[in-house]
Design a protein that fits this description.
By secondary structure, the chain is an alpha/beta fold. It is 44% helix and 16% strand. Bound molecules: 1,3-dihydroxyacetonephosphate and iron/sulfur cluster.
Length: 296
Amino acid sequence: MKKLEKLKKERNAIILAHNYQRPEIQDIADFVGDSLALAMKAKQTDADVIVFCGVDFMAESAKIINPDKIVLFPDEKAKCPMAAMVDAESLIKLKEKYDYDVVSYINTTAAVKAVSDICCTSANAVKVVQSRPDGVIFVPDENLGNYVMRFVKDKDIILWPGFCPTHMGISLKDIMKLKEEHPQAEILAHPECTPDVIDIADKVASTEGMVRYAMESDSREFIVATERELCYRMKKEMPDKEFYPVKNAVCPTMKKITLEKVIKSLEEMKPQIKLSEEIMEKAKKPLEKMLEMGRG
Ligand code: 13P
Ligand code: SF4
């Protein structure tokens, strides 16, 4: 990996990677984390170039936070299907109908963030919704919205029918089968999972929250109800514990980024995230508000 190191130095670049990235990407990254940690890291870095290994909305958020930096996104086709489920025009109409604050999950396009009041991630969604004065329009993940509603009882929360295909595919049956095979294992679930999975989880958290929980827990085994690659990071950081992924829990878009594409992007300095000045300026406010709130 001498070539990569040399390129990184020449460009003064940092590589940020999400917890669902391929093992070889996690291994070469300067920082691996959940969407909130990655946005925070993007804000702190003094590198000139950010190579973002994740999906579109994460790379766009890094650019919005750092309009003057170059954000390389090694495969432009790595688009989160959930983020494409809500559009700015429909959201404006809904806002006119309810006159509530729009809380948009970070899994949204920059155009949707630009018409939102505040963003959130799975690590702070409850805290963000609680902070709003009145009712809330929550987009786009219905499962995360339903999870938030378990904690926020005093607000009218309007949900959007969006979902993550990967987490929708994690069935209670698959988890119960793993539990039968590993009865001592604790069940960790992402809030994008369906309510029946949330009901039986020992801990519901963002991907980073799951890592932290497993580190602090006395348990030695965990069933991990989210994208499978999180288990790679967990095993790497906790080699003495066992992590059981759910079969077929793969996010194909997260796998589009490869080592070759990362090197090529640094060589050619493309593809770069490009957004209109107007959208960036408007989308920055809800993202910054979210960052000020920190973790939930
Ligand atoms: P985290 O913010 O928990 O890492 O989740 C991101 C995501 O896309 C989950 O599907
Ligand atoms: Fe989007 Fe789901 Fe993939 Fe996360 S796991 S990036 S929500 S498709």
